[in-house]
Amino acid sequence: MSLSINTNTSSMVALETLNTTQSELAKTENAVSTGKKVANASDNPAAFGISAQIGGDISGQNAVNDGLSYASQIVSATNSAANSIIKVLQDVQNAVTTVGNNLGSTTSLGQLDKEITGYMKSIDTIARNATTKGINLLSGGTSDGLGITSNSLTFVSGVQGDTQTLSGYGTLIAATTGVSQGATLTELLGLTAGGSAGADPTSNVFLTSSATGASFAGSYASDPKQGVVKMISQVQKAIEAMTNVTSDLGSNQKLIDSMSDYGQKSADSLTAASGALTDADMSAESAKLTSLQ
Fold this sequence. Notes:
The chain is mainly α.
């Protein structure tokens, strides 16, 4: 081996080895501290670029998941309200059935009139309160002055911007009860008439108050016995209509929950894929750090 007094190759090799070790040490320390083997494009341009694209997909999927969660909350609240309304309607059916036992008593009919009208108020109040961020799927309209701005729900369902819309249930209810679109839910159910949006009903379609008590109203008055049958039939239609609503809500809830579950799994898979490209193996990096120190 030649010996030069001007160039110390052994020292140069040792210095290169030291620099390489220091570089590897710095890289390993960074991996241990950040948990990333690819922290920027200079570490691995291809892996960093793919990971960045996956990160965008994750953000998009998370936005979809948020939209599905929002839709699920509205559908759940609406379903809860609809079930509560069915319970009130069952009380209404009991009350109108009781009318048949009090055909000759205007005083008793007056008490029943107040009871039934009270149920109407409860139904409309429950329906109005089923409002989330201005969206109400049960109310008859948006002009109630109580913060209802829409009778339909639109939400993002896909990372490409796909959307789905749940329409209000006015049409479905009207198809069962035979009543055209009304300002309030009780009007849609055929239990009140000519109500104002946002106002509590002051009467029902079955009985009408008078100074001496109450009597049958409208088409129920011509034949009281047959009128009771018609009353019960109308309430049964209302119960059927709301049952149809809960069935549809249940189907939509199941669909949204299924989409949400898939969306969460998709986000988790994307996160795992990104991690496989950029995350450091902490056990290996820690062992490497020990050997380099």
